[in-house]
Amino acid sequence: MSTIEKIEASSRSGIGSTASRRLRTEGIVPANLYGHKKGAVSIQISGEVAHHLIKDGTRVVDLELNGEVENALLRDVQWDTFSKHIMHIDFLRVDPNERVQVEVSVVNKGTSPGVLEGGLLDQQLHSLEVECLAVEIPDSIIVKIGKLKIGDSFHVSDLTDLPKGLEVLTPQDAVITSVVEERRAAVADTEDVPGAEPEVINQGSDDAESGDK
Question: How far, in Å, CA of 97 to CA of 171, rounded?
Fold first, then answer.
């Protein structure tokens, strides 16, 4: 679980894309603070602090604004097209004893026998939706793949050693990861390539054009 860090923010008077661009050129990230039956507030924080929070995986902060400190959940981060610069952050006010719903990343642990035999690890879910106390959000959820052979799958229902009080909201029958044969994986990749089945696409286009007439 990430430690709670204290950060400083200041009120943001200018709103809109022009004002936000100006802030970013000055190394400042525009943000919003909302929730808990209080009005939304436009704020700004240091770009250096923002990147530090993201890098460390911080989820809950003690946010100081105008001399007052509130617990806030880092709810949403918007990046630029190349995911290099933070464009905007949303903070949600929370009660330390309040349960919240968030997405937590999945981390595979162990070595799959199926992979050693030449299979490929097919990661279908990279994060899970969970509910827990705001101050107990885990950094990640561990998926133990040490027993997966070719053809085996790891479902949400197979998760063990979850933090106490954490409830996984993602359906229990959902597949997190599986080990597939290399040939099967190659076929699946081909099916995902646009235009791999031009006959079907063309037929659908002809039907659409006939219907328009």
Answer: 25
Q: Is the pLDDT reported for residue 123 higher than 70?
A: yes
Please state, in angstroms and rounded to a whole number, the distance separating the CA atoms of residues 153 and 148.
7
Lookup: tokens for 165: 């009080």
The dihedral over CA atoms of 49, 50, 51, 52, expressed in degrees to the nearest 10, equals 50
Q: Which amino acid is at 116?
A: L
pTM of the model as a whole: 0.65
Give the span between the Cα atoms of 62 and 70, in whole angstroms: 6
- What per-residue confidence (pLDDT) applies to 50? 93
Does the pLDDT of residue 119 top 50, yes or no?
yes
pLDDT for 2 beyond 80 = no
The one-letter code for the residue type at 175 is: V
Q: Name residue, tokens 């879910």.
A: 125
Q: Is 146 left (phi over 0), alpha (psi -120 to 50) or beta?
A: alpha
Give the other-Cβ count within 10 Å of 158's Cβ: 14
Cα torsion through 204, 206, 211, 213, rounded to 10: 160
pLDDT confidence bin for 186, thresholds 50/70/90: low
Q: Where are the beta strands (DSSP E) in the chain?
A: 5-11, 28-35, 38-46, 60-65, 68-79, 86-93, 99-109, 120-123, 127-133, 141-144, 153-155, 167-168, 175-180
Q: What's the pLDDT at 153?
A: 97
